[in-house]
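ok so i was messing around last nite and threw this chain in just to see what happens. nothing serious, just curious
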Amino acid sequence: MRALLRRDVLAPLAMILTIQSIVTMSSYAIPVAALVSVVYVTGMAVGLLSATLVARFGAWRGFQIMLALTGAGILLMGLGHPLWLLAGAVLIGAGTGLMNPTGSHVLARVSPPDWQPFVFSIKQCGTPAG
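result:
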């Protein structure tokens, strides 16, 4: 248990849980409800590229890109025009596609091997929390 409570494990876990909650919450905002399929199709496509993106830019840059895409998507959706709603859903989907691979990349390195299933379970709680 002491290995799990180290700062180098708890800090990334708390940050990833928060980011995953925010990104998931944005995916279920009222304007997005009609565009959920766009969000998830885009997320699947970006998810296929995520290993390359994380290897090239690093996980922390991946988190920054994820949050920037999500924020930009929310801003576009706030404009209310159907084309902006679609563009916003695509941006949020791109952020969603980076979510799990990027978080897993960080937590696989910092989590004690005996506690990895527990740590990854907590990380996954970000989705329903959102």
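not much to say yet. The longest helix spans residues 82-110.
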